[in-house]
Amino acid sequence: MSNLYSLFRSRFSAKGAESSILSADREVVLTFDQLDESSAGMAGLFDSLGLGQGDRIIVQVEKSIEIMLIYLGCLRRGIIFIPLNTAYTSNEVDYFVSNAKPALIVCCPEAEDRLSLVAQKNDVSHLLTLSSDGGGSLIQRARDIKPVYDIIDVEDDDIAAILYTSGTTGASKGAMLSHKNLSSNVQALHQIWGWQADDVLLHTLPIFHAHGLFVGVHLALLNASAMIFLPKFNDQQVIGLLNHATVFMGVPTFYTRLLDNDSFTKETCANMRLFISGSAPLLGETFDNFFTQTGHKILERYGMTEATMITSNPLDGERVASTVGFPLPDVQARVVDEQGQTIGDEQQIGQLEIVGPNVFKGYWKMPEKTKEEFTSDGFFRTGDLATIDKEGRVAIVGRSKDLIISGGYNVYPKEIESHIDDILGVKESAVIGLQHAEFGEAVTAVVVLEEDSEATKQIIIDSLKDSLAKFKLPKEIFFVDQLPRNTMSKVQKKQLRDEYQGTYLES
């Protein structure tokens, strides 16, 4: 059973008339039978457009149930699903389209005009629209199409999805995730998190991201559990629904906002079985405050686009703040020194490397980059710095790759620096991440101006707004006379982080 959709269907087919998706007011939106029928309708639409196995679909729309149906329709037909963050600008989308060469782009109605130009430039055959309320040309066209119920046979190694993640050079990379990568991961999570027959997932995450789609949605489908499906996180709305759910997944930002709400108490969490955090480091302070306020210990786990979930604190057993737990079943992790030798000292920090069935196939159309990221014995170099204690518990202590995680989103400094450096009056810049109680890390720019420059913080921010997604914009800009460098003229970002650390901690 290599096709991921076949795996899901084998679990929920016996619960056909039961609720799959619930709205914010807990009205049934789709039963499992209707989910199966609707995804078959999407499969029929793709067939009518001439899309076949291995073709790509790029989707950049606001969160809706229909996105999930598109995804499931792709799985059924062996089509590769490529979700994009809605914050990406047209220039950013242009790169993804030129790289992936999709047969279909699905966008918001208000983006149709500007993305039509992108589609024409890159010879994309079809562009359809989808609004957050389920309208748009895609839905209109699907209404007259006969569903296709067949589920394509695929090999374990066939690609199910491509998720783009940037590199420190600024060039985005498409991580190819196979049906086997995703199926092995969801089954491992289902086991270690002890999913129960009566679990209900309160879903507030975006689904262009691995966390919301490949963890949240996948687990609900595999367990044949109902999902209360919210368009976005709202602390007051979540608090009102917790007594109707048993599992909640969020980024650290969600938990800090819940803690700041006076109506978030032990009583509101009485029905909850499990709170899970990921996508960014969870501060020990947040972990402790959450336990004090609710009686629940947040289960923190660690993952990345290239491997989905990698480690997890235990369901039963000690959950240690500021650690990410143990490798998942069938996943091996090790830390190595700069020479690639495995470190035996549990206190010594090293480069984290992993191997397992969840680890991606490589980067789309980047064989050389793919080769660089794997060791000769098949381990993937995560780019994270970690320790592993004698029990096998992993703690992430930093990143060797120049990555910032802000609000659960990956931000790569080189891309932002290149845009800042192009602004009139800017001599050079360095972008760093500083600890932030709500966002995990705050994007921060340190800028050197040309002599007599008239550039200000606001001018720089305004200049970046049309080129960069909002989550990439610096939350603060510091001006300096020169950037610190070593003898090889490399900017010393650690020195900058040390100098400005604490700026946002209490924000």
Q: Provide the helix percentage.
A: 25-40%
Count of helix runs? 15
| Overall average residue pLDDT | 92
How much of the sequence lies in strands comes to: 25-35%
Q: Please name the CATH architecture of the largest domain.
A: 3-Layer(aba) Sandwich
The strand line-up of the biggest sheet is: 2-1-10-9-11-12-13-14-15
CATH class of the largest domain: Alpha Beta
Please describe the topology of this protein:
Blueprint: H1 4-12, E1 19-22, E2 28-31, H2 32-48, E3 56-60, H3 65-77, E4 80-83, H4 90-100, E5 104-107, H5 112-121, E6 126-129, H6 137-142, E7 159-166, E8 172-178, H7 179-192, E9 200-203, H8 210-222, E10 226-229, H9 235-241, E11 247-250, H10 252-259, E12 274-277, H11 284-294, E13 299-304, E14 308-312, E15 326-327, E16 332-336, E17 350-355, E18 362-363, H12 367-372, E19 380-388, E20 394-399, E21 404-406, E22 409-411, H13 413-421, E23 426-436, E24 440-449, H14 457-464, E25 476-479, H15 493-500
Parallel strand pairs: 1-10, 3-4, 3-5, 5-6, 9-10, 9-11, 11-12, 12-13, 24-25
Antiparallel strand pairs: 1-2, 7-8, 8-18, 13-14, 14-15, 16-17, 17-19, 19-20, 21-22, 23-24
Helix pairs in contact: 2-3, 4-5, 7-8, 10-11
